[in-house]
Amino acid sequence: MTDADDQFDAEADATIIECLDLSKPRSFFLYAGAGSGKTRSLVSAVRQAIDGEHGRQLTLTGKKIGIITYTNAACDEIKQRLEFDPRVEVMTIHAFSWSLIEGFNVEIRQWVAKNLEEEIAELEEQHRKGRPNTKAGIERLRSMEVKRRRLAYLESIIKFIYSPTSDNRTHDSLNHSEVIAMTASFLTNKPGLRRMLVSRCPVLLIDESQDTNKALMDAFLNLEEEFHDRFSLGLFGDMMQRIYSDGKDRLDKAIPARWAMPRKRMNHRCPSRVIEVINSIRHDVDGEKQVPRSDADVGVVRVFIAPQAGADPFAIEAAVRQRMETIAGDPAWYSSDTVKTLALEHLMSARRFGFVEFFEPLWGIDRLRTSLLQGAGAGLGFFIRGVLPLVKALRANDRFAATAIIKASSPLLSHETLQAAGSNQVAQLSKAKAACDGLLALITERPEVTAQTVLELVAQTGLFAIPDTLAPFVRGDAHTKAAAAEDEAKQGGQVEGIEGEETEDTSSELSAWGKSLEAPLNQIEHYDLYVRGQSQFGTHQGVKGLEFPRVLVVINDDEARGFLFAYDKFFGTKAKTKADLENEAVGRETGSDRTRRLFYVTCSRAEKSLAIVYYSPEPGLARDAILQYGWFGESEVELIT
Ligand SMILES: Nc1ncnc2c1ncn2[C@@H]1O[C@H](COP(=O)(O)OP(=O)(O)OP(=O)(O)O)[C@@H](O)[C@H]1O
Questions:
Q1: Is 63 annotated as a binding residue?
Q2: Nearest Cα residue to atom 3 of ligand 1
Q3: What are phi and psi of 511, to 5 degrees?
Q4: Ligand 1 contact via 234 beta carbon (within 6 Å)
Q5: What is the dihedral of CA 363, 366, 368, 373, to 10 degrees?
Q6: Is residue 538 in contact with ligand 1, taking CB distance under 6 Å?
Q7: Which residue from 128, 142, 324, 353 lies 20 to 30 Å from 636 (Cα-Cα)?
């Protein structure tokens, strides 16, 4: 590290610290590209602010510096880096929003009722115009029915609840988008809430602000306008990294002239060749150009183009890693364990990391997705917080850990069971030991044993309590309960009130769990590592803010089947549609614009070397088109046959 590099963007950091002066706060927008140390600037500015006179003032007044992060992981990281200082409140946007509106039960009820009425009216209008017997028509009717039932039920809710980190499925709970939309609306229309926020957090910093929900961002900007003499709104972001459609388009253009606009131009993360590539990707958007650190390596960049049809991705990606090992002279490319592979969506990762049979059925149920990506809920918890840690301890012959798990969560050794056993406690201990031995024998003798079989063994031995979600799959109970749920769901219309809605949900969820449990238990181990971010796989969108030495970007529109991003059009191998051309002509955002930004995000994660594998319907054409951009040299683009 050189002093000159460290000082390169020192002016931006000094400006931010000036803005956090509680006696004359000023808002600012730090605009800087990938790897420029935005998060680092945020943390160091806050640390300096709380270490000085401002920190004392915060302590005396009980006010806080608010920091909004994009993910729970970023939230934990920043809290840790600020040593859990009580004068700083670090939250995700969902948690922060809920902290503002929780308890406004009357207003929440009114808002939800009005919103439901509007949605129902819109559906009725569509129903009048549309055809009733199509799939869309039937879904519309069902959706109307569910909304009417929820509307009727609203009056009986005394207290609304919400969890920012899981699916909210009880009748009194609010969903994620409702909480965000409601916060934006309340913050705009309720003077008391506006004053309360400014008084609680005279400084509010938002990381990754380019992706903050646009209605909420407008509410914050509006709030800042009114209170700017005693409130500082600090935005950290990069418009080139706006990858969710939720964010405010042209946020940078909406910033008032009185704000400070610090800029950072050095990229501290990437080698110089990667910086040249990301500068080129960015060039046509805003022309912002980064410079590498003086001690940056040149690094390696390669694009490999493979045929989309009939491709064996495992063989191709292994060949690419081998090739990168030679080109980069870096043996760590050889193993997939030391390369971060970025796929376009989770199913692609699940296939590559070997947990697709477990993941796909549950992923197919929309309302389970948030919990699934967070490993939340009792059904998943049974395996990832109960069975698997125990299996790990038993495999490692770590008796201490195994006993701790059993004591903490097995009904066999619960306080009540031991008390009831009285003088017979030794027998109870032997029971627990036999149950553990049985589990270890099962997974050792049958490494591919299914989750279903493990579940049954656990139920028989009483090793862990079986949560409601999984109870129907325990022998004897399975057929009766699953069939009953399905029967009730079929009678849909005849089931009274809100219960009918639950039954329909239960039926599809049951059948998804039924399929997932047929997967081997070891797939759940892989799934668990993946969702905890501990595997070498991730998605293009999910790695925002992160960095890895070796990055392998996998692009396959066909496998991803997404509609928001379209690499084939972006790389010029698929013709643009009439709508694309019309959008382009009027300056409206197109799929190619979004794809370009996503590509910028993925490429800019690499600390040493970057490989891009592009599965194209027309490899030859793709190579010519990519070379035409001029981003990569002839020797950097290779065809794989
Ligand atoms: N002044 C500096 N000196 C040394 N290393 C730095 C400096 N600033 C940032 N870094 C390092 O550069 C990397 C990128 O920093 P950071 O993640 O804060 O950037 P960012 O702007 O938030 O990136 P992105 O927008 O791509 O997520 C980190 O490893 C960080 O430790």
A1: no
A2: 6
A3: -70, -35
A4: no
A5: 60
A6: no
A7: 353
Evaluate whether the domain defined by 273-344+540-639 bears CATH number 1.10.8.
no
Residue 71 CB–ligand 1 contact under 6 Å: no
Over residues 344-357, mean pLDDT:
90
pLDDT at 440: 95
Average pLDDT, the chain: 88
Between CA 318 and CA 554 the distance in angstroms is 12
C-alpha to C-alpha distance for 35 and 16, rounded to whole angstroms:
18
Helix-, strand-, coil-residue percentages of the chain, each rounded to 5: 60, 10, 30
CB burial class (10 A; 0-12, 13-18, 19+) of residue 358? buried
What the block records as the tokens of 401 is 């850990």
Q: DSSP of 73-86, one letter per residue?
A: HHHHHHHHHTTT-T
Ligand 1 and 501: CB distance under 6 A? no
- Which DSSP state fits 494? G
Q: Which atom of ligand 1 has the smallest separation from the CA of 546?
A: 27
Backbone region of residue 460 per phi and psi (left: phi > 0; alpha: psi in -120 to 50; beta: other values)? alpha
What's the pLDDT at 482? 40
Cα(607) to centroid(ligand 1), Å: 11
- Cα(224)–Cα(458) distance, integer angstroms: 56
Q: Are 147 and 154 in contact (CB under 8 A)?
A: no
Instruction: Please tell me whether the interface predicted TM-score (ipTM) of this complex is above 0.85.
Output: yes
| pLDDT at residue 587, as a whole number | 78
Does the CB atom of residue 290 touch ligand 1 within 6 A? no
Helix (H), strand (E) at residue 581: helix 578-585
Residue with tokens 């500068």: 279
Which residue's CA lies nearest to atom 24 of ligand 1? Answer: 34
| Long-range Cβ contacts of 294-297 (<8 Å, 24+ apart) | 294/2, 294/4, 294/5, 295/1, 295/2, 295/5, 296/270, 296/271, 296/272, 297/271, 297/272, 297/608
The 3-class secondary structure across 12-39, one letter per residue, is HHHHHHHHCCCCCCCCEEEEECCCCCHH
Q: Is 500 assigned to a binding site?
A: no
Q: Which of 135-144, 281-290, 324-333 has the lowest mean pLDDT?
A: 135-144
234 among annotated binding-site residues: no
Higher pLDDT, 5 or 443: 443
Output the pLDDT for position 229: 94
Contact yes or no for 607/269 (Cβ under 8 A): yes
Looking at domain 3-100+181-268, its CATH architecture is: 3-Layer(aba) Sandwich (3.40)
Q: What is the pLDDT of residues 431-458, one digit of tens each?
A: 899 999 999 999 999 999 999 999 999 9
